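ok so i was messing around last nite and threw this chain in just to see what happens. nothing serious, just curious
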Amino acid sequence: MSEVKKLVTQLLKDHHMSVPHHRKELFDKFINDEKTIAAANNILEQQKELMATWKQKDRIAEIIGQPVRLLNATVGKSYEARIDFNKLGWKDITAFQLDGLEPVGLRYDDTTKQITGVPTKSGDIKFTFKFKVEGQPEESAFNEKPITLIINPDPKSLWKNLESDATDPYWKEDNITEFAPLGDRHVLVSSKRGRSHANVGSFREDDFAFSNLENGWSIVVVSDGAGSAKLSRKGSAMACQGVVAYFKEPESLESMKGFDELLQQHVNSKGDDTQKKLTRLVYTNLGKAAFRVHKQLESFAAKEGFTLKDLSSTLIFTLFKKYDTGYAFLSFGVGDCPMAVLNRDVSQVTLLNWLDVGEFGGGTRFITMPEIFRSDKFATRFGFKLLEDFSYLILMSDGIYDPKFAVEANLPNIKKWQEFLSDLQGKNEDGIQVDLSINNPDIKEQFSQWMDFWSPGNHDDRTLAIVF
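result:
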């Protein structure tokens, strides 16, 4: 049956009409008439055009209503996201453009077919996807589809930075960075109040000290005040100052004189006897310093009406001195703050202490704990190393150790220390570089900025000392 006959038959049916048998000849003549054929073809063309238009509009409505989910962005963080046309089934889109991205720091890159940029504003950002589908004339207007992109705020911006109470009798600066000659090297050290403390206006609990001694030794001290102890900021300050003060006393300076001669004997003989004597000298001198600090904290607590626990602080310190045979390092540590020396070409790391983790279930030890001095492990808290040369002597509180090394098992791994140095040299998310050169006029500012690095979940005080 011809298309014309089908159309006319259907029209008659739609109008409740039929062709009786005796009118069949007339009907055949009617549908073959040129005017009938022209009218029918015109109707058929209009039907096809109507159907095509409807399908096009239905397809456009389908695309507009189709969910499009993009990766969430974050203010200040580089962003890349692709609208996958194949996955969305949009192969019939012939032209498109994205409007509304520029005001929030983004754009569509035609080369990479990605939305890229660094968002400058947070919120549920709506932009417009304008498109045309197959069949639409080139001069026709774009169809518009709203798309929502969630841009999260910069996590750093959610933290307050409230100044601590400068009228407090035990107040100290919230942030401090120093750079100075030390021995035949220089020391760069920074101690920063953690975000968790700045957010509520509480105090920096970490502390540090360093000094050259009259006998040629140099000393670096770091202490981390316990967050649970209400006066740990004073405890850490007293611990650092107390250690330096002890080694500056005439009696201590005199006692350390014997080390020079004993070391020479040890270098010449390499015997167990001189090694034992050296170990005993280190134990005696450094042990007295640690115990003196403990007693000073105990006396202060009793005098001021606090408990010794209120002053809880870790304590690590290293003395170093250059000899013809190399550098001697004497160390003591209690708590979870590591000390390490890197050799000249940064191919080997020498740890100067072990950390109070593991058997204590993650709980650290403090210089305020009397049991430290009664423990059979007390002697293992001291160290003596003689190294030909070194590139860096590094002491840090757990505010640096936790985000940069995570676990104690990473500390003997030289690759982790190489990564740490690369981080300092600019290989980090923020691209902040510290030029560890004694001729760098901006070294303090660079180091202070680097110390503010972002690490999710790590918002404790940070103290880092680097001798180079």
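not much to say yet. The first strand starts at residue 73 and ends at 74.
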